[in-house]
Amino acid sequence: MTPVEAQNVRVQRDRLRWWLSRSVVEPATEKIAFQAIELLRAAGLHGHKYAIGAVVAATALHYGKPVIILTSGEDDTAQPCGKAVRIVKS
């Protein structure tokens, strides 16, 4: 989901491919989806607006703590996570 979200017409295709080649792309599994749902429920948020942030957070939390997420969508990721992760604006 994050590679799709990173797509921007102002970014050269080769530059995006270069970035993606240096990233670990994890699948959005059913387990991650249900963890994301629990994060949304705990924060009292709707999946329509916060789905991607919640899935990113659930994926990061899968690796254990401490967790740092580098993102341009601070609010979309921070709200589902609460204090479970540290958000750094990119």
In terms of DSSP E residues, the strand content is 5-15%
Structural class, by secondary structure, is mainly alpha
Global geometry: globular
* Major sheet description: 2 strands, parallel
Helix content: 55-70%
Mean pLDDT: 82
How many beta strands in the DSSP annotation?
2
Total helices: the number is: 5
Order of helices and strands: HHHHEHE
Rg: 13 Å
Give the N-to-C terminal Cα separation: 17 Å
Spans of at least 5 consecutive residues whose pLDDT stays below 50 are: none
Number of domains: 1
Name the strands of the widest sheet in spatial order: 1-2
Task: Explain what you see.
The chain has helices at 2-6, 13-21, 30-43, 47-61, 74-81, and strands at 68-71, 86-89. It is mainly alpha-helical. The chain has one domain. The chain has a two-stranded parallel ribbon. Helix 4 (47-61) packs across helix 5 (74-81).
Short description:
57% of the residues lie in helices and 9% in strands. It is mainly alpha-helical.
Blueprint (SSEs and pairs):
Elements: H1 2-6, H2 13-21, H3 30-43, H4 47-61, E1 68-71, H5 74-81, E2 86-89
Parallel strand pairs: 1-2
Helix pairs in contact: 3-4, 4-5
List keywords for this structure.
globular, 5 helices, mainly alpha, 90 residues, 9% strand, two-stranded parallel sheet
